[in-house]
Amino acid sequence: MPEPVADKPVEKPVEKPVEKPVDDKPVEKPVEQPKAPEKYTLKLPDQSRLEAEDVKAFETVARENQWTNEQAQEALTRHHDAIEAQATAFYQAAVADKDYGGEKLVESQRLANTVLDRVRPKGTPRGDAFRQLLKRSGYGNHIEVLSFLADLGKATAEDPTLGTRGKATDGAKAPELADKLYDHPTSKQLATETGGKR
Hints:
This protein is mainly α.
């Protein structure tokens, strides 16, 4: 008779530790953010409408945003290009205008300059500042600005006392504004009855 086989203890399977997949990527070092330089060296394009104060404003924005000199220069150049494109578009619209442009453009510009010279003369703080504003923005060529100034120029040419602040251009006393506004028989009669009070 065969001998009974001894019961072998049941072996429990050994639990193998779960292996984590190996990450093939090397450990990335944090990318260093660009820092603003101690001093920016920004250059305006030749014959730019922008000025030194515009460059200072760009430097402030660049420093606040930690832009490199190259990033700040690129932003300044883009701004310059946008202003030039706007001024060119204004000029082209003025040239194309049927009432003030084309063959009439030179005369429109002459009339506009006439009124500027009369109301805001060159060489005065206000006159120079206003001209600089028109030049820098390109709005000196905007059809609405040009047409408005040309119309004023035409009106002052027709009435030389306009824009002279109470002085006639020939040295004689200009008529009072009230006399011009109330130049109607009824107004004159009322002024006489009230002792000149209007």
